[in-house]
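Researcher: Please translate sequence to structure tokens.
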Amino acid sequence: MSCSLSQDLIIKTIDFHGHNCPGLTIGIRASELAMEKIDIHNIEDPVCVTETDMCGVDAIQFLTGCSFGKGNLIHKDYGKSAFTFYNRKTQKGFRAVFKNDFARDEKDKNIRIKRLLEADLNDLFITQDIQAPPVRPARILKSIPCNTCGEMTMESRIRLFDSKSLCIPCFQNVEQKI
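Model: Translation complete:
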């Protein structure tokens, strides 16, 4: 079954991202899958864990309302076109992995986008239901100044070195093993 989202919504998603590409289309279809399976755009406390930083993540932000700033869009840099969507209230969710071989041999970008939009979601993604939350809820932590640069840094990101509290960049400047 082809994409059920309106052309107007797809155009708004493209405008949000800045250009149209196959990666964005994968995110559009992953978001559509989340709308179908857990009604993500209408739930109070959605979560998305993305295992990639590709263009499709912009579609997920725009279409699902999950964002880095709200702490309900989490990036795990695994280099996989995989997305876990979860409803904290119902404690149900699923992980969707894009079938990377779908239309990969197609060289024309516009034809690949068209094929992605016309494909059945089951032909695009392998899905697996999950019952446990993929991540803990975001917490607000105290910030403390880095003893080298003076910038306020979340305490969970501070590194102790030679009895000094250092932010990660300052720590990397002095730690010889990194």
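Researcher: Any highlights?
Model: The domain at 143-174 is CATH 3.30.60 (Wheat Germ Agglutinin (Isolectin 2); domain 1).
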